Structure to design on (440 residues):
């Protein structure tokens, strides 16, 4: 059964079946809004916060979703399967790109993807 | 100059979220061979033309990413000398000897954490299983390739690209202590004064390991496996699509190292590459420099532009 997924940041709405993950449904319908990374639960780029609605989830890398985040509904779209209509907010590290895409006049530099001038080497241990 | 000291990347140990889909990927799709498993549940694999017992180690864990990368050195004497040199350099942390047999069929390993936060190992001994090409015994009158290859079937594990913060310290370690050459570098910032990327080689290859400066510690961008031709890279694309593998970029060509490439993700989101081409490196080859203005073609020579997901996605 298909449910509606609403992306809070952009207002985008698309349909997603219960056996389909949210990211895959978005890509299949050629919709945008959630950044696409590895699609396999490892990189965290597609992290969303579920603001409302029931869903099932599969294993995600703890390096990108902490137990606390997961407990409050922060999950990876590629591992999230709707069981009702979902309202989500994009919170992954590329979320800025989503909002930038809505403002085409803002030019981007390579700084958006690689931090090109780090401070001197950090000696943390 | 003969090839001595550190010989090659000997193994990469990766964390996977679930072992079964990981093995389907690495064995059936990528085409590595499972060699053995140990009591901890780790699975050891090799590519077809590698003589050594294993080159890829998979461990089920809660996080994706890299545990460590191991380097084969030419002798036990070199292993002891480099271990002492690493300690004396004071560039590394958490130095330790891992006893013989902790990896099956492998001698003792010297483990250390480099300035970018990655765990590296040196070892001198690992059993030779051979490449299954011999017709009158192992390595006697060999066929050019063995029977029974499946999947993409790269011949070797080739290199890793890793993300970390103290790139200068790591480059100093690899060049001054471990004897690597800097084949290529990416320079950015004011007057191109900041090294963003370093492509390091201990051999005739364009790179055996590469690092990108990013404000993180110990992160993994990809593990790469080598193919024989551009046509094989295209066929890899067919095999990946047939198996509905998450493809990242390609097939395309890199400006850096000239490699012909396709990138994709394992079922835990760890990026893999299979590639062909490149060039022959000699220690006296001048270092190639890429500037900030030409970063697009440096990375993707055909598209000539940067791809945010390729750069920002890592485990």
């Amino acid at each position: 059964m298909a449910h509606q997924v609403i992306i809070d940041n952009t207002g985008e709405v698309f349909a997603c079946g219960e056996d389909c993950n949210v990211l895959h449904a978005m890509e299949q319908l050629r919709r945008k809004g959630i950044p696409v990374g590895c699609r396999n639960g490892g990189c965290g780029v597609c992290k969303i916060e579920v603001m409302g609605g029931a869903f099932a989830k599969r294993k995600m890398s703890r390096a990108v979703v902490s137990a606390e985040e997961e407990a409050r509904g922060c999950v990876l779209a590629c591992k999230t399967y709707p069981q009702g209509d979902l309202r989500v907010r994009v919170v992954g590290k590329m979320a800025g790109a989503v909002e930038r895409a809505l403002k085409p006049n803002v030019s981007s530099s390579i700084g958006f993807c690689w931090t090109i001038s780090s401070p001197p080497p950090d000696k943390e241990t | 100059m003969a090839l001595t000291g550190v010989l090659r990347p000997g193994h990469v140990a990766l964390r996977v979220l679930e072992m079964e889909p990981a093995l389907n990927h690495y064995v059936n799709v990528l085409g590595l061979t499972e060699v053995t498993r140990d009591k901890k549940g780790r699975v050891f694999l090799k590519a077809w033309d590698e003589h050594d017992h294993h080159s890829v180690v998979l461990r089920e864990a809660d996080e994706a990413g890299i545990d460590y990368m191991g380097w084969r050195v030419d002798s036990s004497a070199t292993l002891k000398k480099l271990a002492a040199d690493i300690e004396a350099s004071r560039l590394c942390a958490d130095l330790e000897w891992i006893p013989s047999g902790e990896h099956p069929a492998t001698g003792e390993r010297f483990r250390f954490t480099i300035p970018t936060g990655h765990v590296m190992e040196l070892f001198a001994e690992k059993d030779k299983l051979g490449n299954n090409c011999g017709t009158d015994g192992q390595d006697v009158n060999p066929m050019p390739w063995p029977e029974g290859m499946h999947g993409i079937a790269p011949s070797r594990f080739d290199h890793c690209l890793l993300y970390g913060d103290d790139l200068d310290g790591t480059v100093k370690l690899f060049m001054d202590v471990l004897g690597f050459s800097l084949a290529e570098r990416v320079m950015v910032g004011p007057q191109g004064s900041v090294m963003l990327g370093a492509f390091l080689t201990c051999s005739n290859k364009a790179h055996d390991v590469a690092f990108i400066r990013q404000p993180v510690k110990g992160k993994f961008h990809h593990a790469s496996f080598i193919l024989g031709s551009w046509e094989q890279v295209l066929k890899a694309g067919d095999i990946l699509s047939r198996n509905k593998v998450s493809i990242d970029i390609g097939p395309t060509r890199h400006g850096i190292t000239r490699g012909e490439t396709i990138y994709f993700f394992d079922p835990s989101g760890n990026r893999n590459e299979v590639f062909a081409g490149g060039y022959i490196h000699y220690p006296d080859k001048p270092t190639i420099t890429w500037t900030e203005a030409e970063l697009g073609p440096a990375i993707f020579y055909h598209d000539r532009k940067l791809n945010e997901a390729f750069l920002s996605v890592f485990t």
